[in-house]
Amino acid sequence: MSSLSVSLRRLSSQGLQACTVSGSRNFSTKKVCVIGAAGGIGQPLSLLLKNSPLVGQLNLYDVAPVTPGVACDLSHIPTSAKVAGFTGDKMGDALNGADVVVIPAGVPRKPGMTRDDLFNINAGIVANIAKQVAISCPKAMLLIISNPVNSTVPIAAEILKKHNAFDPKRVFGVTTLDVCRANTFVAENQKMDVSKTNVRVIGGHAGITILPLLSQVPGAKFTQTEVEALTKRIMFGGDEVVAAKAGGGSATLSMAYAGAEFAFKILRALNGEKGIIAESYVNQPNGPASYFASPVELGVNGVEKIHSFGAINDYEKKLLAAAIPELEGSIKKGIAFAASFK
What we know:
Structural class: alpha/beta
Helix content: 40-55%
Largest sheet: 6 strands, parallel
Number of helices: 11
């Protein structure tokens, strides 16, 4: 079976597992809104969500005028989710009453750009979206993909605070792509079944703030050279895609896959399924940084518990120590932006 087939089978199981919550086929569908739905991430992400029985209503919003056409296109797919497209000044209509909001909106990276280079544009986009979320669906689960995630998640949180709509249990930075890359690269290196590989990745979602805990991979035997090479590749996997696309964009398909995988876990948790754990970048007042990606247990109210990431070796401790100042700098930058945002 090809790696693509394995990946699709794995993702499908994420989306369909809630059909058997509590041993029955009784589950409730949810209203999901994708903001930035006409973009390189938004379109394949919306396609994956349309294919899920967990989604009853799928609302798509983008400033691009093609968005209603994207919705029309998806609506011809024979699955139960109903699709509607919105553009222009209709973001509030798209968001109204949403249970889950997924935000891939923003400009993509180009060769030579870092995630921080995106800050000035994407910060304002995310701030505006958060403001509308506070008005239209303040209880929604907010899944932020827009880069730089290390800054955009604090921005969204601060804007929600201004509108008395911040619940730290309901705001997530989607770092699932880091886990997907780690699983793929480690499985290739160790000749493991990728569908059974689960590498814990903590920290943030940019460069050296991404920390794969290779010391915790069951059954793996790495040389130090392999550890260093794999760690670097996982940290800078996004650069690999940007370079390979030669000016044609950044990671879109893999990010759409990862965003859908995390969204499905949220939807399953909203249906009452227990024991769902996923790494996510969330508010942690007592964590290594005030926002930090850790294993998070999900429930009907969002974050039920933030789990310890466990024992790490000396090499990983060194990487974590280097990551924290970088992470806190990005967080402070986001908070400062939100404070000045009108």
